[in-house]
TrEMBL record:
Coiled-coil segments on the chain, per record: none
Keyword Hydrolase set for record: yes
Keywords: Hydrolase
Cited Pfam families: DLH (PF01738)
InterPro entries noted in UniProt: AB_hydrolase_fold, Dienelactn_hydro
Keyword Hydrolase: yes
Entry's Gene Ontology molecular function annotations: hydrolase activity
Domain Dienelactone hydrolase: 82-182
UniProt cross-references to SUPFAM superfamilies, sorted A to Z: alpha/beta-Hydrolases
Name of the protein in its database record: Alpha/beta hydrolase
Length: 198
């Protein structure tokens, strides 16, 4: 998979797993590392699906309607890629903290729907990736959700539902709301930075 990697500066610093939104690339979110934790490293991945030239992490049938077969396949491929990277670069997989925006947040959430792979995750404007499934035990997982109260792509009720599903599975979930639609704004990043320090 096309990706960028920067090693963490210290032995116990996290490694952010940056997952971009539709039409983005592996370059998009890497600038956040210095804001979130200047000691941290990152692994930033480009989605393998192209929707009219726009990279994504899985196919969709329409806006907000996901191709669940493709989502399952792409999620498994991404998890395998992460396991391979962890082995190759000699870090523990749960040192990765996904930081996903929009489509990237949706595949990050879906990885957690499959397996408690991470101890922490930052989901920026996510949706519910799948419904009617049993989640794994997420009681050791902390999740930060940054959502838009007036986000036309990820409506507030999706955030509430995702938060409830993660909590039912045992995760600790903190939601921060902004009021700028689907845009990723600095107050959300600042809230995520504070949350990481807690
Ligand atoms: C998705 O397709 O994952 C969501 O609708 C968000 C997006 O537009 O990327």
């Amino acid at each position: 998979m096309i990706h960028l990697y920067q090693a963490p500066k210290t032995a116990d610093a996290p490694i952010f797993l940056f997952l971009h939104g539709t039409g983005g690339t592996e370059q998009d979110l890497v600038g956040l590392v210095s804001l979130l934790d200047s000691e941290a490293g990152y692994l930033s991945v480009r989605g393998e699906v192209s929707e009219n030239g726009m990279p994504r992490f899985f196919k969709r049938l329409a806006e907000g309607i996901f191709d669940e077969e493709d989502l399952a396949l792409r999620t498994a491929r991404l998890i395998q890629f992460l396991r391979d990277q962890a082995a190759e670069r000699s870090f523990d997989l749960d040192r990765l903290i996904p930081v996903g925006y929009s489509n990237g947040a949706n595949i990050a959430a879906n990885m957690l729907f499959e397996e408690a792979l991470f101890k922490q995750a930052i989901l920026l404007h996510p949706m519910v990736p799948r419904r009617g499934v049993t989640l794994p035990d997420l009681s050791d997982v902390r999740v930060f959700i940054g959502a838009g109260s007036n986000d036309p792509i990820c409506p507030a009720q999706e955030t509430e539902e995702l938060s409830a599903l993660l909590k039912q599975a045992g995760a600790s979930v903190d939601v921060t709301w902004s009021n700028y639609g689907h845009q990723l704004v600095m107050p959300t990043i600042e809230a995520a930075t504070d949350w990481l320090k807690q």
